[in-house]
Write a structure and sequence with these properties.
The chain has 454 residues and is of the alpha/beta class. It folds into two domains: 120 residues, no CATH class; 259 residues, Vaccinia Virus protein VP39 (Rossmann fold), CATH 3.40.50.
Length: 454
Amino acid sequence: MMQYNTHSLAPNPPPPPLLSNNLALDHLGVPRPWPGGGFSLSAKSLGSFTTAGCMEQLLVHCANAVEANDATLAQQILWVLNNIAPPDGDSNQRLASAFLRALIARASKTGSCTILAAAINIAHAEASTTSLHAFSAVELAGFIDLTPWHRFGYSAANAAILEAVEGYPIVHIVDISTTHCMQIPTLIDALANRPEGPPIVRLTIPHLNTTSAPPPMLDMSYEELGSRLVNFARSRNVAMEFRPIPSNPSDAFDSLIEQLRIQRLISEGEALVVNCHMMLHYIPDETAAAASNIGISQEVLSLRSLFIKALRSLEPTLVTVVDEDADFTAYDVVERLRSAFNYLWIPFDAVDTFLAKGSEQRRWYEAGICWKIENVIAYEGLQRVERLERKGRWLQRMRGAGFRGVRFGEEAIGEVKGMLDEHAAGWGMKREEEDLVLTWKGHNVVFATAWVPS
């Protein structure tokens, strides 16, 4: 049986009454069955709840109780979860702990179950999911190298880009990415070694509002980032221009698209490559718009599709789309909880293979996952920006806008396999039609796709 720390609850009021006959008390003191049947709330049986399936069910029951404003039931479930899911436990426990804190945050933001603040261990509640580390450029580069989560997309996309821009004297790269151009140095290295010589590189990025940008955070200005990239390119004998354009996913990068359209009118002999790396799902989707504005036009309801169509109008040489293969778009918070729980176990499970317990990098890594979980669970409307969609939905959008998929060649396959050899045995890769998919223990994690105008 799992041992748990009962004295950690000392600063709080005692847990609500527990009945040995598997009943819970409602607000009137009338016994009723514990939801789901078969669960016992006695301390002796807490160890039986420590499987991922049971913890998921408890979280679902807790979410339902919070949504129903049933403070008594929610408090009982929280007491159990607080004992079986310490924030420093195994991967399943840390996963459940993150969802537990997100549910408490949801209750505080929605004004439901205000008593929950007293139901949870103070140290547990104070473990903020938003205390994100601001990386230096060197730290971020090293941090990304720890896992294939981003490197998979880098390797696949860079190989496709190199093939697409072969022979072009000027290559304009538009990097719409969450990782602050960390993909670009490797691409510059490859372009510098082209048989026909390096091209002139123009690099354009959206200049995001740092207060609303998703993690990871970079502890430097865009000007300093650009200066470093230009100097790095110069050291490889590559002439590069760097241009940040104020733009945000909230308006489907409207300013960026307009600037690209103007630039496209005056450029000749230039390959235009749009590299979309885990950023497009921050463009508001239909449910975000509908939740904020009742009766708005269908045109506004399809910002993601409008963005893809705007890209197509630019006649790009290549568009790469890399993102996480999950669906966090459900209107119902319980459905989102189930989807997120059954996807975000992967980073918690994988981190045990490459970062020591208690290490600083591990805290940084898991803080980013907790930020995502809190955003999925605790927020609604346009504040809920973590709205992942499955690969199939993006394929529909791209094809509907007039793109056709490009099959990744053997060189790309080799690059990805070589990269995966540097990581734990649980990581793998599979091909699905033209696309590549990163897997962890056989489960889809990240997809990589490449597109050209039809």
